[in-house]
Amino acid sequence: MKQKSENTRLHYDTIIVGGGQAGLSVSHNLQKHGIDHIIFEKHRIGHSWRNDRWDSFCLVTPNWQCQLPDFPYQGDDPQGFMLKDEIVDYVEAFAKKVNPPIMEGVAVNRVWRGEHGKLHVSTTAGEFSTDHLVVATGGYDIPIVPDYAHSLPKHITQIHSVNYRNPEQLPDGEVLVVGSGQSGVQLVEDLHLAGRKVHLAVGSAPRSPRMYRGRETTEWLFDLGFYQLTIDRHPLGDEAKHKTNHYLTGRGGGHEIDLRQFALEGVKLYGSMANIDGSILEFSADLIKNLDDADEIYVNIRNDIDRYIAENNIDAPIEPPFRKVWEPELDPTRINADAENITSIIWAIGFRPNYRWIELSAFDGRGFPQYDRGVSNVDGLYFIGLPWLHTWGSGRFLGIADDAEYLADVIQRKLAVKAVAEL
């Protein structure tokens, strides 16, 4: 890789902030166009995969979906699910192929519009300017912990999922996981398999089958066109960007996760977390609804696949109808953490983006960027690597290539128009 060790340039046609798979993919396409650019990466390539995941972390989508530009998965287990270290190796191998102009260990502190319309970029390596700025930092900047968490007694350990590594790091006793998105349910399984007593505050996340009618479900969904579904065609519109992904896991070769089965095995389930008052933990009375809603999505996915099989006369084995394996007798709304011997809480309720360093009018009232296929309403500003940037596949290894190619083409066209205007 072309590692820049010092500030030898002041202006670049394009600056990319973030050297993960999204930023590297943009660099790959900019190089094809011969566009002058540089990447600023706050840490090092592969940092979030290497440093912000638990020990047993693996992909929830099969390896065949790893389709970075001109660099598809080339291993011998396309139906498998790469472990954390294998993901790091894949991203680092892609970076070696791209050989990007990158400055690692360089943070971008501020971006603003300067004179002559240039975007000014202040970094820990100096001051730069650019015509086009691509933000490839992702949306997982600030771990979400509710304000009422401060009232939890100090003898109860609390951490965010980004800081969880393994069951051994937690004190003896029982564990409450708050949040049933992809991370939350996988941490529950990690703790449960290690023999820990686990409690789970169940949120509104949907779930998905892993295998159905003789085939991995993501293969069916790919054939059905779900990954190519664009945000403008989604019934929820832009609100889809803020919805939680379906939960399932790639652990042990991949399987679906049924929270009702966890309950049969001793995991205690509650509704969504509502408040903490000392050792008293309060939950909403929505456990039954949240379980039923997740199952409804699960069944809908199966029904979509059934229709596709019937319409295309596909020979596929028949599956028995879905049935609930457990129903809660109660929907408890208050427990005493000390009485339940809960000694630690893991917050798995997501992240908020932090774009405060971008001093441009490109965000909505909640601080989320506004764009069309990653092209901001602010001239020269772009985003990539976010869920539903354009399609359901955006933000995943599967969809980044198309998004990066599109942005590079937009930048190339704008630079060409500028060059003609300056003749």
Automatic annotation (TrEMBL):
GO terms for molecular function: flavin adenine dinucleotide binding; monooxygenase activity. It comes from the Bacteria. Gene3D superfamilies: FAD/NAD(P)-binding domain. Transmembrane segments: none annotated. Keywords: Monooxygenase, Oxidoreductase. NCBIfam families: MSMEG_0569_nitr. This is Monooxygenase FAD-binding protein. It comes from Methylomonas methanica (strain DSM 25384 / MC09).
